[in-house]
Amino acid sequence: MKHQFYTKCAYFTAARYMRSVEKIADKVYAPTKMKPAYSYIMMNIEDNDPSSIMSITHQLGYDRSSVSRMVKTLADRNLVELSSKGRSTVVSVTTNGREFLEVANECRNEFGQLTDELLGTDKTQMTALLTSNEKKLRG
Q1: φ and ψ at 50, to 5 degrees?
Q2: HTH marR-type domain spans which residues (predicted)?
Q3: 112-124 pLDDT, tens per residue?
Q4: Is residue 5 part of a domain?
Q5: With the CA atoms of 45, 47, 49 and 51 taken in that order, what torsion angle do they form, in degrees rounded to the nearest 10?
Q6: Residue 1 has pLDDT above 80, yes or no
Q7: CA distance 136 to 112
Q8: Domain-embedded: residue 9
Q9: SS3 sequence of the chain
Q10: 127 in a structural domain
Q11: Domain count, the chain
């Protein structure tokens, strides 16, 4: 009997798809000199400047420890500034961060165009399904 997980397992197919997407994203986001996740964190902060680590965690769905680690890396590169407000860490974009965001947003646009070309009309339906299904899994 052949296993069916190659095409029917949500975990396996999603992970295989993610590995393929990540290879493309790594190439497109190479001008930032960082993994794409850092660009998305920066874009989230740009959209909500100033933000907090907990807010980034909730909006992007990353683990709090991962967001803390990545934000610290961004602060070490002088792309964000960290401050405390009670028990919360506030994150703000710096001037260097705004320059980084110009490049990151160009990469995002290029990635969007490339995936539009590669996936065609399936992209809109697929991303909508992934978004709604992720919400179901999160509860």
Answers
A1: -80, 160
A2: 27-124
A3: 999 999 999 999 9
A4: no
A5: -50
A6: no
A7: 25
A8: no
A9: CCCCHHHHCHHHHHHHHHHHHHHHHHHHCHHHCCCHHHHHHHHHHHHCCCEEHHHHHHHHCCCHHHHHHHHHHHHHCCCEEEEEECCEEEEEECHHHHHHHHHHHHHHHHHHHHHHHHHCCHHHHHHHHHHHHHHHHHC
A10: no
A11: 1
Say if CB 76 and CB 85 are below 8 A apart: no
Percentage, residues of the chain above pLDDT 70: 100
Q: Which domain holds residue 73?
A: 34-119
> Which residues touch 56 (CB under 8 Å, ≥6 apart)?
41, 44, 45, 62, 67, 71, 91
Half-sphere exposure of 39 (CA within 13 A, CB side): 23
pTM: 0.91
- Both tokens assigned to 137: 């899994």
Task: Indicate which CATH number applies to the domain containing 90.
Answer: 1.10.10.10
For residue 6, give both structure tokens.
């190659």
Beta-bridge partners for 80: 93
